[in-house]
Amino acid sequence: MAEPQGTNLDPWYSHYAQRTAGLSASEVRALFAVASRPEVVSLAGGMPYVSALPQDLVLSAAERTVREHGAVALQYGSGQGTPELREHILEVMALEGIRASVDDVVVTTGSQHALELMSKLFLDPGDVVIAEGPSYVTALTVFRSYQAEVVHTAMDAEGLVPEALRETIARVRAAGGRIKLLYTIPSFQNPMGVTLSWQRRMEVLEIARQNDILVLEDNPYGLLYFDQPPPQAMRSVEEQGVVYLGTFSKTLAPGLRVGWAVAPHAVREKLVLANEAAVLSPSSFAQTLISEYLGTADWRAQIDVFRGVYRERRDAMLSALGEQLPSLSWAVPDGGFYVWLRLPEHLDAKAMLPRAVKELVAYTPGTAFYADGGGRNAIRLSFCYPTPDFIREGIRRLATVINGELTLLSEFSQTGPLPLPLPAERPEGVLPPSVG
Amino acid sequence: MAEPQGTNLDPWYSHYAQRTAGLSASEVRALFAVASRPEVVSLAGGMPYVSALPQDLVLSAAERTVREHGAVALQYGSGQGTPELREHILEVMALEGIRASVDDVVVTTGSQHALELMSKLFLDPGDVVIAEGPSYVTALTVFRSYQAEVVHTAMDAEGLVPEALRETIARVRAAGGRIKLLYTIPSFQNPMGVTLSWQRRMEVLEIARQNDILVLEDNPYGLLYFDQPPPQAMRSVEEQGVVYLGTFSKTLAPGLRVGWAVAPHAVREKLVLANEAAVLSPSSFAQTLISEYLGTADWRAQIDVFRGVYRERRDAMLSALGEQLPSLSWAVPDGGFYVWLRLPEHLDAKAMLPRAVKELVAYTPGTAFYADGGGRNAIRLSFCYPTPDFIREGIRRLATVINGELTLLSEFSQTGPLPLPLPAERPEGVLPPSVG
User: Of B228, B272, B2, which is closest to residue A23 (Cα–Cα)?
Assistant: First the structure.
């Protein structure tokens, strides 16, 4: 190899694959470091509140995993996942209307790895993935890591807009783009918190069918509703046209890294091969522990506990926003982890972040959720992890920062203070504000 | 999407990425299904004998993971792995002469996932990976899944042959090939069982340096020596030119899916980003459990136990081979899991496999370990999993099959029985036989 010419030089610089050009540190990643400081109230990140999980239930599942199933749990397993866990996954998915066979399920290292495997299987350089705008940041990272182009399609308070989707598809195709996947988070979307209505789910499926586009339905939050369940999963009415992703990260614990995909037969076979190439087999230990937990604990009641925890936190955040930032607008989420807050249009959420951290509050700037630079004056607030008291304190600090920015702007303005509330411009793909 | 026209048709057939053309079920994979039948003595696969692990040690590590570290172990973690586990990994690697910093280590989902991440980072379609012939089957699968070409380089009883490596590099470059990686398993190689001598390690590093090729040093078996430790790791003397892979699958348990990579700084940064895109973070639970195990158990003594188990099994296999198949030849492994058996040249190991399974013994045909069709008359025998009695019975059955094949061949031959021992042809990349 070439001798390194200094500590900052990379002797392998010219050796990387072209796809690494799309691989860069996300804004969320940098935030994780900031958010880990104990004095900062982090409204960034999406860490579930695992402390709501009774230690006894996890402990006894772990003990039985070692004592009763050690020879299996410590060993390599099938690239598709254990039959026991896949049976349990069918029970979990039945809650959202999905009927499938154990053979349709592939266990993955979190649903994140299912996103990675689907991307590896389907995306050639230059292919297009249509995604909601805004969308889950690390899904966008994965698509781009396979040199695909992400094209956003607009959302409103009922989720992605079918007519806008038709137009997006037509526009991409007119420009010669090869559309491989439609990536959607229909229930309690990350980062907007909105839910795709049943009527629209049917319309979106019909559009995908007409246009020969595979739907990648990512559903980490569907069971975490606060009042009414969301509409049933799109996979409940469409087997051949949907690859469905689920996870135990939100209803149990992300530290186990177990998720799954449900896919049409031929896609499922390829997913298993890709899974074997990537990790040989998903963790037998984690799968056995989860099977033991699901087989003995009242896991449905535990999900109810999580729902209560997150509802209380959502309520704390919404009431704090109403008190502290009454002139701003946000979507009211009926489940999940996130509130999407629109800032006055003169504010830049990313530029404001260092000042927020100085005030000991962290959030995720809206631009993180767009592949195209959108989201400049929006921020995602997570209510999943901090307690209600910390959420209120975090919003109070955030209000200090935002109001300070606005005062600063008005002092620099020759025309006096800016009027509040500011008229919100709506770039394509951003929800019209609904005041909480 | 197109309507499926029958249960065997794949409506998404035209949608897959080009790289999926290289993704097919391996011969080893089919064997796993066969080998799982209890009446079959499986000398295929590479499952470690996890029952040699004291249940108490694993149980108490699992209990402390939940009781004392639950909030961390159940949560998302860093894409690089926990600092605690990376510290322990430094202790493990010190046994093979490696000095590194915690910052140099990236924890992965088994070392298999480090192979996947390295391939994703370095391999463009058409790039060349040079690998020993034969080599680890699922490494070859991963390289090909990124549309790289695997070119084998010859080995002998001291591991890969430096002069042959020079010639291979020159040949590939003369043909316009872009060589990205040299993949090697220097100690107790899979599948041949041979070990690269210290002198050759230095020569190979020098060749790589001169030719600007990054060495991917895969070392799952180095600590599982039977008498003398193997030479120190190549990474012990070369930091910039080597990416080193280690794993807990053989010294602890594969069901936890924890391995690691040690890489030069810039490569390590990219590995972390690729790891985050693929799985967000390696399992906090598995990492914590392993840290607890390493922090409290006498893990060095436990590795001694594993050494004793595998040495006894290696001895059982070699003595059974000497008794049952004295006319054949094999390499004597000084560590690891495998014996590479040369068949008479008229036999085809793959074609013979169904008859072996009928006799209730399974092995891996040599062709699985070549990207180019080599290894037709060789088989890999694993002594890691079955007890010595089963190994002896397995070799007895294998001898029945091989002798039956030879009798059959001689009956079909017009010239009477074939002479035994047969002169062994040595295709490039195959070890000269050393009779055990």
Answer: B272
| CA distance linking residue B34 with residue B5, whole number of Å | 32
Give the C-alpha separation, A420 to A423, whole Å: 8
Residues of B in contact with A110 (CB under 8 A): 279-280
pLDDT recorded at residue B27 = 57
CA distances A415 to A401, A403, A412, B59, B433, Å, are 22, 18, 9, 70, 90
Query: Is residue B201 within 8 angstroms of chain A, CB to CB?
Result: no
Backbone angles phi, psi at A301, to 5 degrees: -65, -35
- pTM (predicted TM-score): 0.92
| Residue that the structure tokens 């017009």 belong to | B414
Please state, in angstroms and rounded to a whole number, the distance separating the CA atoms of residues A363 and B382.
53
> Which residues of chain B are within 8 Å of residue A7 when distances are taken between CB atoms?
265
Tens of pLDDT along A27-79? 556 655 766 688 999 999 899 999 999 999 999 999 999 999 999 999 999 99
Burial class (CB in 10 A: 0-12, 13-18, 19+), B126: exposed
DSSP reduced 3-state for A243: strand
Q: Do B255 and A124 touch (CB under 8 A)?
A: no
For residue A189, what are its two tokens? 């979307």
- B52 touching A (Cβ < 8 Å): no
Q: What is the pLDDT along chain B (436 residues), one digit of tens a residue?
A: 444 344 458 999 999 999 998 787 765 566 557 666 889 999 998 999 999 999 999 999 999 999 999 999 999 999 999 999 999 999 999 999 999 999 999 999 999 999 999 999 999 999 999 999 999 999 999 999 999 999 999 999 999 999 999 999 999 999 999 999 999 999 999 999 999 999 999 999 999 999 999 999 999 999 999 999 999 999 999 999 999 999 999 999 999 999 999 999 999 999 999 999 999 999 999 999 999 999 999 999 999 999 999 999 999 999 999 999 999 999 899 999 999 999 998 899 999 998 999 999 999 999 999 999 999 999 999 999 999 999 999 999 999 999 999 998 888 775 554 454 444 443 333 333 332 2
DSSP character at residue B38: T
Q: Give bridge partners of residue A106 from the DSSP assignment.
A: A261
Residue type, B428: E
The radius of gyration of chain A's CA atoms, rounded to the nearest angstrom, is: 22
d(CA A404, CA B421) in angstroms, rounded, equals 89
**What is the Cα Rg of chain B in Å?**
22
Strands A378-382 and A364-365: antiparallel
How far does A310 lie from chain B, in Å, by closest CA?
16
- B172 Cβ contact partners less than 8 Å away, ≥ 6 residues apart: B128, B130, B151, B179
Do A181 and A145 meet the contact criterion of CB atoms below 8 Å apart? no
CA angle A116, A118, A122 (to 5 degrees): 120
- CB-based contact A177:A149 (threshold 8 Å): yes
How many residues comprise chain A? 436
Say if CB B267 and CB B244 are below 8 A apart: no
Residues B138 and A276 sit within 8 Å (Cβ to Cβ): yes
Chain A interface includes B30 (CB < 8 A): no
Closest CA in chain A for residue B69: A55
- DSSP class per residue in A303-371: HHHHHHHHHHHHHHHHHHHHHH-TTSEE---SBSSEEEEEPPTT--HHHHHHHHHHTTEE-EEGGGG-S
